[in-house]
Design brief:
alpha/beta, 299 residues, six-stranded antiparallel barrel, 29% strand
């Protein structure tokens, strides 16, 4: 897969099947679009392209995470920053200059609510009008649903805000999480008998509700089970810095400076401030027992 961070860097001459959107979570609806792009590309011997508008806002996926998710799925990923030029571009100009001249799109796959161009005037009807003239073929796909409700990044955000991680994961089709570098902390967990790893989320990464979660942690390409706290650790600090702190079961090696992946599996309890370190330790002991029982039941 080749990855471009701006549209002007893409100068390929072959035809492609492309899907366009924000792709800020790669949920099941997004993957349905991408799956159809793969089918068109394979059937018609053209390249597969994901064209992602980067809105520059908080996201469920960082650009790097999206790149990793799509690495083996398409030929090209194009990150298109939502610059003033793109924002002000008339829809017809976008079709002619970007889709036809730049991408050489022969197949375009979008959802029913896809809008583009200045003031979002472009829509599937405009694309279908171009398709009738023979410019390309368009496949407009219905939204995916879960339990009778349309899957959307907004719905997933709401689930995360309420600690409904299981609901979010089912709409995503994978476990929500983050990647980051293990940082030095105050090593309080080590002195209390449960050494932890501290990871600061990317500044654009949306975090789930503050609290304790059962987690899976990837360290040097191997997966482990554990528990993790999302929040500001109010019992031991006043810094108000958002942090993910994980305790990995049956693992005692130091990993400062190493990249890890943390996936949230289930929500146990909200974050709270304890009256003493002793009270905190008792609760963490309970959390660890809860986590081990949870994963035992999942076998």
């Amino acid at each position: 897969m080749q990855y471009y961070t701006k549209i002007t860097s893409y100068n390929e001459k072959h035809q492609c099947a492309v899907t366009l959107g924000k792709f800020d979570s790669l949920h099941k609806g997004h993957m349905k679009l991408i799956s159809n792009v793969q089918k068109y590309a394979h059937k018609n011997n053209v390249k597969s392209v994901v064209f992602a508008f980067d809105m520059g806002k908080d996201s469920l996926l960082t650009n790097e995470e999206r790149k990793e998710h799509l690495r083996d799925k398409v030929d090209y990923v194009i990150e298109c920053p939502f610059t003033e030029e793109i924002k002000q571009m008339e829809a017809e100009v976008f079709v002619e200059e970007i889709l036809i001249k730049r991408l050489h799109a022969s197949y375009i796959v979008v959802g029913t609510d896809f809008h583009f161009g200045h003031e979002a005037r472009g829509d599937v009807k405009l694309l279908e009008a171009y398709a009738k003239s023979g410019a390309f073929k368009v496949d407009v796909m219905e939204k995916e649903t879960y339990q009778g409700k349309q899957i959307s990044s907004t719905y997933i955000r709401e689930a995360l805000q309420h600690g409904e991680i299981t609901l979010a994961n089912r709409m995503l089709g994978y476990n929500y999480g983050l990647s980051g570098v293990v940082e030095h902390g105050k090593q309080l967990g080590r002195t209390l008998g449960f050494p932890t790893m501290n990871v600061t989320p990317h500044n654009r990464k949306i975090m789930p509700k503050a609290g304790v979660y059962t987690c899976k942690i990837q360290i040097e390409n191997k997966w482990y089970e554990g528990i993790g706290n999302v929040g500001i650790k109010p019992t031991v600090t006043n810094e108000k810095k958002m942090l993910v702190e994980v305790y990995v079961f049956d693992y005692n090696e130091e990993n400062y400076g190493k990249k890890v992946i943390i996936e949230f599996d289930s929500f146990e309890r909200p974050e709270k401030k304890f009256n003493s370190i002793e009270e905190l330790k008792r609760q963490v002991d309970d959390d660890i027992r809860y986590g081990k029982e949870y994963f035992k039941c999942m076998i």
